[in-house]
Design goal:
By secondary structure, this protein is mostly helical. The chain has a single domain, classed as MFS general substrate transporter like domains (Growth Hormone, Chain: A). The protein has 17 helices and no strands. It has helices at 8-16, 18-39, 44-71, 80-98, 108-135, 137-140, 144-173, 185-209, 229-242, 246-276, 281-309, 311-325, 328-334, 346-382, 389-417, 431-454, 463-474. Helix 2 runs antiparallel to helix 5 (108-135) and helix 10 (246-276) runs parallel beside helix 15 (389-417). The longest helix is centred in the C-terminal third of the chain and has 37 residues, at 346-382.
Length: 476
């Protein structure tokens, strides 16, 4: 059985919506902790705590937005009113995050509450755009293999957005300050550039996908307020039914463990490259630059692997390879067998390590997103034919965000446990302190990633089952 596939322009407009999310993620994951802790001087634990609280609040908003957009009635459909409404708040709050007023930086308390409040605004605004935007995917194509290609475009734009802003920050914005990554001016410019890019790409995706509004699913109007007692009972019933679906539970738990690991890894990334590997801003900039190679490789590789092996096997194989490969370079350096920093192959080896690991992770994420999209029809076939893409995508986001905040907070705790000093400069920290950081970090992140990989074993949807689900869900 075959279904119509989405056009190239549809893939571009849909995929481009992930750019804003990629830019936000790059800022939060790689720069925000070190900016507020090392540059502005906010205590490491308080910085991690503020970011963790913001993520936890954002995780709850995911579910609310998913439920709202699944049941919204308007001439602009279910998703687009939220997407358009989110643009200006996202742009303004992201700029303010990197450009705090002078009075805010005078005390730890002021800085903590400013970071907490603005981080909540940025994350919530992105949620109002990202959840409805991502939820368009399962409706734009029902074809089993075309979904992987559609999701490949989303990850292409998301990763390119994040990588581009990272490379520009490391190689252009930060070096413009005499203190490099420890100076404030580069981060302030990051806020301006990121906001402008978000504005352009969010508008591009919103306007480009409006042509599909007439053909999108329209929920039945039952006359109930979305937050009436009866409506909330139905929402609780939907959640209960979702958690009785083994494939949904599998992707939900996998996202839970993956989010915690990713939050921890991203929050400590700049610390590790700066203090463990001893790289300069310009050298660090070369590493995400390689992501611009990894993304097109994954973009091509993921749909082919999923088509040849099936989505579940392809995702699990690539994920396991990434997990096994991840600690190799760290272990070699700790054991004293990695080339010395003055060696000609020191930086190339670090870059090769990043390229291989990143390619595997992106490939897995593309396939995983397509697996998550197939849960929509699996759930619809079990119910009355209703489509709750927003709730399904929001639940997965909730899982990742609820514990990625834990990962960020763990990063703050690890820095504290290692007695890592504030406003530290490269080359001025005891090697034992940095090694302790790595020795605590590796076992934790590997355990979390292995748990994320293991629970995917319970995923039940293959191509044949998906085709049956589409027929049942459509009532044909």
């Amino acid at each position: 059985m075959t279904h119509s596939v989405s056009s190239f322009s549809t893939k571009v407009f849909y995929g481009s919506g992930a750019t804003a999310f990629g830019i936000k993620d790059a800022g939060f994951n790689y720069f925000l902790l070190i900016y507020y802790n090392q540059v502005l001087g906010l205590d490491a634990f308080l910085t991690g705590l503020a970011l963790a609280i913001a993520v936890a609040i954002d995780a709850v908003s995911d579910v609310a937005v998913g439920h709202l957009s699944d049941n919204w009635h308007s001439k602009w459909g279910r998703r687009h009113p939220f997407m358009f409404a989110a643009i200006i708040p996202v742009v303004i709050s992201f700029y303010l995050l990197w450009n705090p007023p002078a009075f805010v930086t005078t005390t730890n308390a002021n800085l903590f509450f400013y970071l907490l409040s603005i981080a909540i605004l940025v994350r919530s605004g992105i949620t109002f755009f990202e959840v409805p935007n991502a939820a368009l995917g399962p409706e734009l194509t029902k074809d089993y293999n075309d979904r992987t290609r559609l999701m490949a475009f989303r990850y292409l734009f998301g990763w390119l957005g994040g990588l581009t802003i990272s490379v520009l920050t490391f190689m252009v914005l930060l070096p413009s300050d005499a203190l490099g990554q420890m100076g404030p001016s580069g981060y302030e410019k990051l806020g301006l550039l990121g906001s402008a890019a978000m504005l352009a790409m969010m508008l591009f995706s919103c306007i480009g996908t409006t042509r599909h509004i007439p053909e999108l699913y329209k929920p039945a109007q039952n006359g109930l307020s979305l937050y009436s007692t009866e409506s909330l009972k139905r929402l609780a019933s939907q959640f209960k039914a979702m958690f009785q679906n083994p494939s949904f539970v599998s992707v939900f738990l996998s996202a839970l463990f993956f989010g915690a690991a990713a939050g921890l890894g991203a929050a400590l990334s700049l610390y590790l490259t700066t203090f463990f590997w001893g790289l300069s801003s310009a050298q660090i900039g070369y590493i995400p630059l390689l992501g611009l190679i990894a993304v097109p490789i994954s973009f091509t590789l993921a749909p082919r692997l999923a088509q040849q092996m099936g989505k579940k096997r392809a995702a699990m194989y690539t994920f396991f390879f990434a997990i096994a490969f991840m600690p190799v370079a760290y272990t070699a350096k700790l054991a004293g067998v990695f080339p010395e920093p003055d060696s000609n192959i020191y930086l190339p080896l670090i870059m090769l390590n990043y390229l291989i690991e990143t390619t595997a992770i992106i490939t897995m994420q593309i396939i995983f997103a397509s697996m998550n999209a197939d849960v929509v029809e699996d759930r619809s076939a079990e119910s009355d034919g209703r489509r709750d893409e927003g709730l399904i995508f929001a639940a997965r986001n909730f899982a990742k965000k609820a514990v990625s905040g834990l990962g960020v907070m763990l990063a703050g705790v690890v820095l504290w446990a290692a007695n890592f000093p504030e406003k530290a400069l490269p080359g001025q920290i005891e090697p034992g302190v940095v090694n302790t950081l790595v020795l605590v970090y590796l076992p934790i992140i590997l355990t979390l990633y292995l748990a994320s990989w293991y629970v995917l074993r319970s995923y039940k949807i293959d191509k044949a089952k998906h085709e049956r689900n589409v027929v049942i869900a459509s009532g044909s």
